[in-house]
Amino acid sequence: MPQDITTSVLRNTDLGHGNFLLEFEAPQWSAEMKPAQFFMIGIPGSETLLRRPFSVCGLRGTFDDAPADSVQVLYKVVGKGTALLASLKPGAQLDVLGPLGNGFAQPHDPRARPVLVAGGIGSAPFPALIVELTAHGIRPWMIYGARSAGDLPLLDWFDEHSERLIVTTEDGSAGQRGLVTGPLEELIAANASGSLHLYGCGPEPMLKAVARLALEHGVRCDLSMEAHMACGFGVCLGCVVPTHRPGSAEIHYDRVCVEGPVMDAGVLAW
């Protein structure tokens, strides 16, 4: 059940290259949220009227040095709202509405290997998911891509906590030169279709490419969608995406904030 609270910043860690890990007190959410659910976060008294959506990055037990009753969000400074967020010090107040949307689920087939596909700051929901999967005895693989090495926040953490990590950058400054779709296509080709379960989060062109590969090869694929939104709970209709139902060509419009952010790649009408 979503709650609207005012809480305090515990840490706002500068990870470099405009990436930050924000930690705040949230005892009512730290144990019950699912990876990829999100918050609408605002700064009391600021000039920014609308709150911004941020995926939960860390929950109880995700980061070893975090207080048990805290949660973390990973974000990148891209505009006025995130610049204000980056300026906050410990003790600053936040208005937080959450948890919102649905979240990533365990693989439907317990024999399927989870493969996480992240693009840049789209890696945000994956620390919580990795820890949850590990708690169930599953060590995921991960493909992590971005434009350059500076756009890969928490890279060392992912390297430590994934059974296998493949890194790609468009400029070749880290890992393989290229896009995540290159190694993903190789992984799919090397494994039977039912043996993988893809989880994706990142920019829309990347998600479209991942979805296309998954659907072509019959691989289950859950995508955490990103969208501009004003409310976060389905009223403003500003975050709709075109979808279709199995066996039907009729187009529907689902709200990323309510029916998502996690959606089966097969329902998206791209």
User: In what range is the share of β-strand residues?
Assistant: 25-35%
Along the chain, the helix and strand elements come as EEEEEHEEHEHEEHEHEEEE
Question: Residue share in helices?
Answer: 10-25%
Count of distinct structural domains: 3
Within the CATH hierarchy, at the fold level, what is the topology of the largest domain?
A: Rossmann fold
- Overall average pLDDT: 95
Overall shape: it is: globular
Tally of extended strands?
Answer: 15
> Uncertain regions: pLDDT < 50 for 5+ in a row?
none
Using only C-alpha atoms, the radius of gyration works out to 18 Å
Major sheet size, sense and barrel closure:
7 strands, mixed
Please identify the top-level CATH class of the largest domain.
Alpha Beta
Strand order of the largest sheet: 10-9-8-7-11-12-15
Fourth-tier CATH superfamily name of the largest domain: Nucleotide-binding domain of ferredoxin-NADP reductase (FNR) module
Judged by helices, strands and strand pairing, the structural class is alpha/beta
What is the architecture of the largest domain at the second tier of CATH? 3-Layer(aba) Sandwich
How many angstroms separate the termini?
31 Å
Tally of helical segments: 5
Describe the structure.
This protein has 270 residues and is α/β, with parallel strands linked by helices. It folds into 3 domains: 3-100, Translation factors (Elongation Factor Tu (Ef-tu), domain 3); 104-226, Rossmann fold (3-Layer(aba) Sandwich); 228-270, Dihydroorotate dehydrogenase B (pyrk subunit), domain 3 (Ribbon). Helix content is 18%, strand content 34%. The protein has 5 helices and 15 strands. A hairpin with a 2-residue loop joins β1 (3-16) and β2. The protein starts with a strand and ends in a 6-residue tail after the last strand.
